[in-house]
Amino acid sequence: MLATPETTVPRLGSYYLQTYGCQMNQYDSELLAWMLEGMGLAASDDAERADVAVFNTCCIRDNADQKVYGRMGDFKRYKAQHPRQVLAVVGCLAQKDGEDFLNRFPQVDLVLGTHNVRELPEMVLKVQSGEGRFVRAEKQGDTFDLLARPTRRFSAMVTISMGCDQWCTFCIVPYVRGRLKSKPVLQVVSEVRRLAREGHREVLLLGQNVNDYGRDLEPRSDFADLIDALRGAPGLDRLRFTSPHPAYFTQRVIEAMAANPAMCEHVHLPLQAGDDQVLKRMKRGYTGAEFLDLAARMRGAIPGLALSTDIIVGFPGETEEQFQRTLDLVRQARFDSAFMFAYSPRPGTPGALFKDQIPEDERLDRLYRLIELQNSISMELNAIRLGRVAEVLVEGPSKKDASRYTGRTRCGRLVHFEAEGDLTGLMARVRLEQHFTWGFVGELQEHETRPGDWSRAAA
Ligand code: SF4
Q1: Which CATH number fits the domain that encloses residue 406?
Q2: Which atom of ligand 1 is the closest one to the Cα of 167?
């Protein structure tokens, strides 16, 4: 049994937790923090002196691996000074490297794969009592027994599924996160309702491929059913999800979104490439024309919908002509924003074995050209919104300038503005005054005095 932080536990030391990668990892880190606090440890920014240091890792791209390997060097020095420190590496890179990680870095005590993160407290205690160093990287064993433990008081993440059965040829996720496993509908609904009751007015539903949700449940369900089941949850002002897959995005899901007033007018819809042959080689399951048709149907059903995307350039075999088709599709789709990457071969995936890898300078050249195009589109779309008053859910003081607050519109756009007092977790209306590729600087018009003062207003 895990200790629970609800029990009053005397503080027995400190922990340092560093998270890399996606929102799924951030969600896991909320659970890790909760478990560590349940052991009586207090959060600390001091990596060197923390009694337990945990790295929640990502391996989606080569530079994500390298960042973690690089940090291990620091801990060689720290452990020389503080030999009782426990160093744990968990998550995707731990799953991928397993025993190798322990062999390569003698300063690491514990390697826990994606299916074993829940064993952290038990394994830390074993290391502390001198039982040795451990690797746990099972191939399966996910459970949904731990509920979301959000660190923010107004916004929460809820996993609806783990793993993925799509096996895109560039992606390592199915190898490190396993096969699709969906959380039962009733469990998701009760978790979301509980969070909303506790004041979390925004919930982000998480899954590697949310549109494949429910295929493995008995009785079978789907993502449209889930969105319907969440309609009308008291106190839930904003509902978001990530990541969907274009090939699984049914008309029923679009209709369920349109019918749910909490559903935000923003979808992150990964395109990956605009050329049909490249999409086929990536094993994505749709064509460029099908993607554009889906985007048009979504925009038709949900007024003001913002679309963001992921794009990979320089996938093996991609010709200049095929890359130009990606640029054409980006011009037609007019995404509000995009995460853009040069292809990075992941050992163990089919893409890494393709013989026709594109040289790095060519991949980077394509990436820069794509970024230039997308930035100009983002600026154009943001310019259209200047002067409007947007509903912003305030996330807290800006990290770069403490005199400013930062928040997001329903469309997911970032807005900075000046304000006095603590507005964190409140809705504010902000006039959009200056635009950038990333969002806006605006002027505060009015704000709630207590969470929930306002009924929903369109962004
Ligand atoms: S659908 Fe997403 S998570 Fe699944 S293999 Fe493809 S890119 Fe990876």
Answers
A1: 2.40.50.140
A2: 5
